[in-house]
Amino acid sequence: MGVSTGLNRAARGGYAARGVVYVIVGALAVLAAIGAGQAENTRGALRELLNQPFGSVLLVVVGIGLFAFAGWRFIQAIGDPDGAGTDAKGLLVRVGHFASGLIHVGLAVFAISVVFSLSAGSGDGGGGDPTSGWLSWLFGHEWGRYIALALACIPIGIGVAHIYKAYKAGFEKYLRPGYNKAGVVKPVCRFALVARGVVFIVIGILALYGGGIYEASDAPGMEDALAWIQGLPFGWLALLAIGLGLIAFAIYAFVEAIFRRIGIEKAGV
Question: What Pfam families does the database record attribute to this sequence (predicted)?
Answer without folding.
Answer: DUF1206
